[in-house]
Design a protein that fits this description.
about 50% helix
Length: about 80
């Protein structure tokens, strides 16, 4: 996908759609259902979000980076 061809608003909308699909999957799983979008299980979702982040940062747009840890954070060693 040629991310440079999209408007700033389009990039933000697509990024928020990834965030929304991830949140929906988490809510489905929390209620005991199968995730509908399989965002965490499908590497293309993360790649798409990363490409969107790269393009938005290149343009100087503010990006609220998606938390892929599901609120678990990272272990300190």
């Amino acid at each position: 996908m040629e991310y440079g061809a999209f408007t700033d608003a389009s990039l933000k909308m697509m990024y928020e759609a990834v965030r929304g699909a991830l949140q929906a999957d988490d809510e489905f799983e929390a209620s005991g259902e199968e995730p509908k979008f399989r965002v965490r299980a499908t590497s293309e979702w993360r790649r798409h979000a990363g490409n969107l982040e790269t393009e938005m940062l290149k343009r100087g747009l503010q990006v609220d980076i998606i938390d892929w840890t599901n609120g678990q954070g990272e272990l300190s060693f």
